[in-house]
């Protein structure tokens, strides 16, 4: 590991620049799409998408909590109508189809609200047949990213790539079992939290997410 790698990133933009350097073989390809996990993953994804000349979209994931124990996930829903269920847990806890439907309906309302807020009337971009690069600002346990990988697979991409500036060794290794490729720019030995590896880890707001998406939709102006 280079000495520079032992220092934190200045901010998410610098992290995106370093990550983009490891993804240059995807640059200029028409079959690539970059998906940022909100909120903190979107600024990183915006830098990556800009460097690769690829379209940017947001990939919203909502956990489906077990009734009465909402912190325990029995599945998740995500952008584009994708849904993942933990069948083993559902059977073990004898959760009914009606209970799943009710929880999913509540979470779908929140997912739809966030997507309306972020996209501001724009439809989700299609990932079918494309290389979907899922980007977050870091991986601690990797649980949200694991759900995102499983969910985006339901939308028919040609392959799924996980790309993050920093992550724990365990999280990166586990994701290698379900993603086609995992790129963790830095895997520090003393990893404790994602925020530890950023000098500026200020919260990304919903407004920030929308601003990044709107900027990515603007046509590129050619230099005279």
Instruction: Give the overall shape, derived from the CA principal axes.
Output: globular
Low-confidence stretches: none
Quickly name the level 1 CATH class of the largest domain.
Alpha Beta
Assembly level: single chain
Order of helices and strands: HEHEEEEHHEHEHEH
Mean pLDDT: 91
Biggest sheet statistics: 5 strands, parallel
Strand order of the largest sheet: 2-1-6-7-8
Rg is 18 Å
Calculate the terminal CA-CA distance, rounded to whole Å.
Answer: 42 Å
Integer tally of domains:
2
Strand content: 15-25%
The third-level CATH topology of the largest domain is Rossmann fold
Q: How many beta-strand runs?
A: 8
Please work out how many helical segments DSSP would assign: 7
What share of the residues lie within helices?
25-40%
CATH architectural designation of the largest domain: 3-Layer(aba) Sandwich
The structural class is: alpha/beta
């Amino acid at each position: 590991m280079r000495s520079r790698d032992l220092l934190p990133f200045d901010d998410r933009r610098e992290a995106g620049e370093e990550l983009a350097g490891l993804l240059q073989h995807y640059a200029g390809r028409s079959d690539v799409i970059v998906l940022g996990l909100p909120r903190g993953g979107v600024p990183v994804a915006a830098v990556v998408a800009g460097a690769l000349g690829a379209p940017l979209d947001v990939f919203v994931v909502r956990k489906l909590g077990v009734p009465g124990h909402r912190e325990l996930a029995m599945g998740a829903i995500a952008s584009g109508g994708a849904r993942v269920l933990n069948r083993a847990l559902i059977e073990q806890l004898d959760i009914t189809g009606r209970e799943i439907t009710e929880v999913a309906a509540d979470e779908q309302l929140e997912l739809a609200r966030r997507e309306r807020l972020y996209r501001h009337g724009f439809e989700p971009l299609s990932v079918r047949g494309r290389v979907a690069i899922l980007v977050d600002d870091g991986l601690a346990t990797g649980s949200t990213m694991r759900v995102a990988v499983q969910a985006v697979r339901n939308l028919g991409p040609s392959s799924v790539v996980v790309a993050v500036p920093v992550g724990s060794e365990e999280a990166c290794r586990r994701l290698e079992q379900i993603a086609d490729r995992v790129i963790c720019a830095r895997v520090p030995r003393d990893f404790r939290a994602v925020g530890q590896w950023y000098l500026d880890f200020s919260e990304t707001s919903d407004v920030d997410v929308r601003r990044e998406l709107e900027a990515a939709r603007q046509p590129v102006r050619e230099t005279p």
